[in-house]
Amino acid sequence: MDVFKPLNSLVKAAKEGDRAQVEVAARKFEEHANTMLKVEGRAVALILKVHTHIHACTHACTHARQASRMLCSLSRDVDGIQITKMAAKHVSTLIPQVWLSC
Length: 102
What we know:
The chain has one domain (about 5-100). It is built from 3 helices and no strands. The chain has helices at about 5-15, 20-75, 80-100. The longest helix has about 55 residues, at about 20-75. It is rod-shaped and about 85 Å long.
């Protein structure tokens, strides 16, 4: 879809001095502009929703890393500590990738 077509039609009609066509083109341009505003509003709402989810995920990952560090400091299970540290490292690696994917 050519997003500039309604505007170009309006300009063309105005240049030609065709009042009736200017009226028609103006209505079409207004409808098109209203549609674009609705689409933009939905896009902004979707972007905000995604940002909120990513922020919540990042916040949860940060808490998970902090909890894993605390658990490792309290535990004497060497294997468990290694697995927990490895998992925390993977989480730390994933956080920037999640942000970059957006």
